[in-house]
Amino acid sequence: MVNMNDAQREAVHYLDGPSLVLAGAGSGKTRVITGKIAYLIKTCGYSARQIVAVTFTNKAALEMQSRLSLLLDKSQTRGLTVSTFHSLGVRFLREEFAAAGLKQGFSVLDSQDCLGLIQSLIATTDRGRLKAVQQRISLWKNALVTPDQAAHLAESAQALEAVHTYHSYQATLRAYQSVDFDDLILLPCQVLAASETVRQKWQHRIGYLLVDEYQDTNQCQYQLLKYLTGSRAMFTAVGDDDQAIYGWRGATVENLARLQQDFPELRLIKLEQNYRSTQRILSAANQVIACNPKLFDKTLWSEHGTGETITVTRMDGELAEAQSVSMRLSAARVEKQAQWRDFAVLYRSNQQARVMEQALRDLRIPYTVSGGQSFFDKSEVRDVLAYLRLLANDADDPAFIRAATTPRRGIGQATLQAIGQYASQRQLSMRQAASEQAMASVLPARQFEALSGFMTFVSRFEARSVKPPHQEPVDQLLDELIQAIGYENHLYDVSSDDRAAQSKWQTVLDLLEWLKGRAKESDWNLETLVQHVALVTMLDRQTDESPDTVTLSTLHAAKGLEFPHVFLIGVEEGLLPHLGRSSGDEEPNDAAVDSARIEEERRLMYVGITRAQRSLHLTWCARRRRQREERVCEVSRFIQEMGLEQVKPSEDPGENMTPKARIDMLKSMLSKGSRAR
Ligand code: ATP
Ligand code: MG
User: Fold this and answer.
1) What is the pLDDT of residues 185-194, one digit of tens each?
2) Is the CA virtual torsion 423, 427, 432, 433 positive or negative?
């Protein structure tokens, strides 16, 4: 076995029952998981098919697979499942759709679609309110609360409205033969609870289950874990309560304590050596987290040397901050003879990415943004996917509406309303209703003609794509479909200028390329492909290659990752800790809630600090533009908590320079660096 300390080895070898590895950042928890998978297969005679490892994001799953490929041959990992809870849920439902009351070609709606659905139910344009209702429904689902149970819990008028919406929302999803992301966990749980046969089948199939980042599971995920492992309870969970950062999404650290109660035989293993960071970084992280009340006692030490000084730099504003970080990063790369991929710029809020991206582009520094606005949120991507969804599921109403009206083909609001009315009277989906002969008498001739043209088009492709035995290869179908829609022309018609249209068209080509690759790799037909695509949209986009680029990431999306050099920007009161409340927030504004919020922010800071291996640089802005207003900011309390010396005024030599002067300075830094080499 590759390097493991005694405690890690114990965790890997322990197979007499359930086990929990509870330990701080960088102590090798994820390494225990990969090591244990290799041990189960190589030494204990498990077949890869019996092993399921659950990670938090698709990116983490990929990372785990690549770590495994160093430990095992390809033939040994065939059939191994390494996925997120949600992907596991999709796989489950693809087999058990009937027990869940779904048809095989059910759709997975992403959160934008679901928000649209909620909007159609409560008819408001107040996005804050819509999001608040969506969040509430999601929290209920994650806590296994049904609409009926929610009705009993509701105390305020606002909550009652949400309950009401929850009821209709569920009914509509069912009518669309669709599920949302939360259903991907909830429905398997409900099916497993209801059916002994299904339970036995899955418990028999899964010989060993491993869960990474266990502290961020919600109640529903925990229940799923229990059902899947059954009374044999052959599982290993690893986690760190100090890194619980998804409380706002219904995750509950109580799952750590619950595990000990529900499984009294649970073997608890603690890891204490940190292998990731220098002493300085580790000690700053330890001091910050010491300000939170302790749930579990943990110690963390490192054998690495003291390391570089952690710097804190005060900047005038976010533009100066972004430019300065870009320059320092670029210079450090030369100085340290490092690669771009050794650097990460981390921030609390997505909005901070834009200025940073611009500054990196100015210096021609290659970067990848993770956890930001997704590729799959782009309208051109969603347009194309709507067509695919409609082919895979004739009950997907949001997809029908989008496809029917993009590009414009004479199907407008009046037609859609007539179809909608007809559909609801007869309990049909919109697409089913639209293909009924009776439409001829419901609609004026011109509208009917436009509609039936579209319907013929759809059924022609459906016959070739999803209906066996005529399934044609996905790549050929995709090309022809896009051609037939006339989508490229449409982009030129609706874009402000040709360049915008070109760039959108390029996005579509990228999408097609990616879809074809995925379909080929897993031998998927269109239906399966479409169900998996929806999933990728949720947390991150799966990229197969890892190019040499700087990583730009939110703190949330950086969980579990490590980088030699980290810049943490915007370390100010109000931003980190983040004090913004989402509008429509119904939480009582009391001290307990506030301190819970600060504690979660502190854990986020801890996550940020502990991503760094060798160097850590913090910046904060004395002024920052927020909601079109420039505000004066104070340095974050977390800096003092890290035990760093009182912040000196800016030491950035480039501050207050013109852009040209900055570039000149950078050039001279770079040439100095290359001479040193
Ligand atoms: P996080 O809490 O951030 O998820 P983690 O506890 O999962 O961290 P890992 O990512 O598994 O920690 O390990 C951190 C780093 O330490 C990795 O680079 C890993 O390869 C290395 N490492 C872990 N254990 C050992 C060991 N016994 N010997 C040498 N290196 C180790
Ligand atoms: Mg980890």
Assistant:
1) 999 999 999 9
2) negative
